[in-house]
Amino acid sequence: MISPREILKEHWGHLAFRPLQEEIINAVLAKKNTVALLPTGGGKSICFQVPALLLDGVCIVISPLTALIEDQVMRLQEKGIKAMRIPAKSSQNEIITLFDNLKFGNFKFLYLSPERLQSNFIQQKIKELNVSFVAIDEAHCISEWGHDFRPSYRKISILRELVPNVNFIALTATANQKVIKDIFLNLKLEEEKILFKQSFKREKLAYQIFTVEDKLNRLLQIFNKTKTPAIVYSNSRKKTEDISNFLNANKFKSSFYHAGLSAEVKKNTLANWKTEKTPIMVATNAFGMGIDKANVGVVVHLDIPSSIENYVQEAGRAGRNGKKSFSVVLQNDTDIRYFEKQLARNLPTIKEIKEIYKKMFQHFQIGNGELLENSLEFNFLEFCEKYGFSSSKVTTCLKILNNQGIVTVQTDFNKKSLVYFTTTSKKVINFTKNNNKLHQFITVLLRSYGGLFEQETKIDEYYLAKKAGITNQLVRTYLKKLADADVLVYQQSTLNTEILFLHPREDEKTINRNAKEIQQYLDQKKKKAAEVIAFIKENRICRSQQILTYFDEKESTRCGICDVCLSNKKAPDWLRTRILELLSRTTSISSLEICHLIDTNEKHILIHLQFLLSEGKVALNHQNKFYLTNQ
Question: Could you give the angle at the alpha carbon of 315 between the alpha carbons of 313 and 320, nearest 5°?
């Protein structure tokens, strides 16, 4: 029989596995129910893809995001491995054909979303398959304590009934003990179970958080010192473009990446970064799927990450070659206030969710008790404008309703028309000089979207109509006229977003049935935001120790290379001895009393007290006073 290492070399070109990969693969081959916690860069996909190629039958892979499914299926197909997904809106006859191909076409993988799995028809077809095992990617989604809880993940256990004699492997990059326990419990993996957990400790990755007002100048300083490939994260598409242009203007080769780019542009941009034609990538968090570049030397966050889990995942893209690397967060008080304001602006209340859901029925003129079986085209911006809703809250609301199985959002908002100017800006101006209205429209178009002369750019006709003060139809007319004159290329989207209502109209009753889980989701988002702010503000405890503690790992050794440790090296060593001597002469004492008794910098005293706490040399009693332990 061919070995896992031979499969690895044949399809991935690697001679050896990363830590724990081979052990996890052997557990899957031995039919053990397995949970694998591998931080970013640990190579989770290999852990189920290799054994699937060694076993007879089809591996069913459950994954939460359509984009993630498409990416993994494409990558497997590029390696000559037969993998399949079920496209949205596939008819019953098309699904029958797909499953016939799975049964008789030597396919090795079927990728499904947890929502798609709930289809009774698909469940019946799964019973007909020879299933090798089940792999659940992003398994933290199963837990309400995870950073991206999806109730639909709780229903994955139906596979235990559909294919009762196969083993499961659940994989995640971010989970604490509470989440891991939830994974075992909800997937019913209690029998024949085994857990593989790789430490989150990254000895050569320096977590550094700096308070700066001039971020652009600090970026230049960073890249003057660092010559390795880099990633710069920003939460705004426009900022990625502006910052990339700024870096290029300062003689640093960079490109930008966000969800608003066409597939072709994304592909070329990624290729240029991988070959280091443009070694600096400025991106939103859309950049991350399948990114496995070993020599990234620095990851910079220009905005506050949404959670510690997301931060650790993105920061972990640096230093995968084992060399010293840096994760740098540039922030200030204004960023923190903006982060907190945005959270409040983006998260709807239960009352607001009820109102948005009700207006969705009114928008489509659906009566009480009525349920339409077909999907409905949904113009997102038009809906928000019509009812005066915040677009960010409607976006969050749609995600919640989709995750709760109340509606299905058939496409995302990225399915938009594409525009690309094929001539110079001077010729564009000359073409429209005799048509004032067309000239005004061109001006609005150019001010609304950057890069139109360099690459295909996604646009929203309704947004342009609103900005230009004209109708949606007139926007399309102008664009078609310009396209006919070979001024630009206009690829009109045939679809906006489609909504499928899964329950008859009952307005508040439907939301009330799900209100507890919805509120848990909203509370968890607030909790995760508070935790990341606390992490940024805590400048007395080693960053690495903070991260390890967050993921339930005990670590007494400081990393020595984070911003906190480097700052603490300035605290005099004699102070530690003085504090211990003082504590040895008393049963307990507060930090304030210590500061009064030792005449030195208060910050240095607090730094040493935190170190002594982390080392277990001292402890705090119920009065919040320090005392010596027996160590």
Answer: 90
